[in-house]
Specification:
Oligomer: single chain
Strand content: 15-25%
Number of strands: 6
Order of helices and strands: EEEHEHEHEHH
């Protein structure tokens, strides 16, 4: 059994390559028919201070607006933030009535985001750290950790990963993943048909590496 790597306080990652992972609509409590949006955010040469103040439009607001003016303001904020913080990728996870299988699928989604970053950005897995916000509570995170460890083993990848309590408060990569997920959800809410926003950054749930001959 994998012992879950759980960090309660701020962890020193200075100078490392870090992928933060967080989501929006965990538990599917947000209506409007949206799936869970799981997002990764890549930061190379991680800063020596992760508790930096909010960047422009990093404070969450406006997603529940019901007025044309509020909707327009939200979309302005979302487009600005996502364009100024472009190192994100995301995948979508539909609700599964089986809560255990939902956690297994969540590990699969995280695995796909990790692989997509490694192969798209040509990252060295041995120099990479994956930081994730804890999933509800330790027991559920344990299930995801065990399945993710198995999947990465099958992919022959040795990648360090850990979960962090209140990750978005302690890790800027997790925070940016959280905000990107929030803005992607809002853009989809206000435009529920057609392609997803930033569709080229969307990663399939079953991401596969294409080998060139």
């Amino acid at each position: 059994m994998v012992v879950i790597p759980l960090v309660k306080k701020r962890k020193s990652l200075e100078g490392k390559t870090v992928i933060g992972i967080d989501e929006f609509n965990n538990g599917f409590s947000f209506s409007y028919g949206l799936p869970m949006i799981i997002v990764s955010y890549l930061i190379r040469d991680f800063p020596n201070r992760s508790n930096i103040p909010n960047a422009k439009y990093e404070k969450k607001r406006g997603i529940l607006s019901k007025t044309p003016k509020g909707e327009e303001e939200f979309q302005k904020r979302a487009r600005y933030y996502l364009n100024q913080n472009p190192n994100f990728k995301y995948t979508l996870l539909e609700k599964n009535p089986n809560s255990y299988l939902m956690l297994i699928e969540r590990a699969q989604a995280i695995r796909s985001l990790i692989l997509a970053n490694i192969y798209d950005k040509k990252l060295d897995p041995l120099e990479l750290v994956i930081a994730m916000d804890i999933i509800d509570e330790k027991g559920r995170s344990q299930i995801v950790a065990e399945e993710l460890d198995r999947l990465l083993y099958d992919d022959r990848l040795s990648v360090k990963f850990y979960f962090q309590c209140h990750g978005e408060d302690h890790n800027v990569a997790i925070k940016k993943a959280d905000r990107a997920a929030y803005y992607l959800a809002g853009l989809r809410k206000f435009k529920p048909k057609g392609k997803w926003p930033h569709v080229l950054k969307r990663v399939p749930l079953d991401f596969k590496v294409i080998q060139n001959d």
